[in-house]
Design goal:
- It contains six helices and seven strands; from the N terminus they run βαβααβαβββαβα.
- The radius of gyration is 21 Å and the shape is globular.
């Protein structure tokens, strides 16, 4: 049986990393047909967008993707391809297991945790205002009047909105994950 997988080389070190990953996967002997698509700076140059619609369509069609690192321009350029992919595909849960295996030298013992983080709102749709900017000064003034508390005028500000829907969904996901994988402890923040 042939498996079709979307392959996103990315940019920067992405193509090199993906080529090594592709060789490892192909060494398993599994019959794979790669559906290679372009994102990031190269896609911006060729198609006028860092995340062309055909990339989303390929991932939806194949249901599996292997993606390399994609550069996110700092202070300008285009929006993060990673964040856009998460939002367009509703990949709301970031699941990061961390486990220490016997035989690995470490100052830590008995590490077996899973961090689950909301991946589409909060940090990923935030607004940031640089200190001393017009917007920061206006917001500081507004918040100070509203709360009757002084905020230092040289403050930078960051607003990270998260909806009730997103909060409930990620908490539900975390509890269901803990039950499914028989985790002994769950901390929700």
């Amino acid at each position: 049986m042939k498996y079709r997988i979307t392959l996103i080389p990315g940019d920067g070190i992405g193509p090199e990393v993906i080529e090594a990953a592709r060789r490892c996967i192909e060494a398993t002997g599994i019959d794979i047909e790669w559906d290679e698509v372009i994102v990031g700076s190269q896609a911006e140059k060729l198609f006028g967008t860092p995340l062309p619609q055909d990339v989303i369509e390929s991932i939806r069609r194949n249901k599996v993707a292997l993606k390399g690192p994609v550069i996110t321009p700092i202070a300008g350029g285009y929006r993060s391809v990673n964040v856009s992919l998460r939002q367009k595909l509703d990949l709301y849960a970031c699941v990061r297991p961390a486990k220490l295996y016997p035989g690995i030298r470490s100052p830590f013992r008995d590490v077996d945790i899973v961090v689950i983080r909301e991946n589409t709102e909060d940090l990923y749709i935030g607004i940031e205002f640089e200190n001393n900017s017009k917007e920061a000064k206006e917001l500081i003034n507004f918040i100070s009047k509203l709360t009757k508390k002084n905020i230092r005028e040289d403050s930078s500000l960051s607003i990270k909105p998260i909806s009730t829907f997103a909060s409930e969904r990620i908490i539900r996901f975390a509890f269901e994950y803990a039950i499914k994988f028989k985790r002994k402890k769950l901390t929700v923040v």
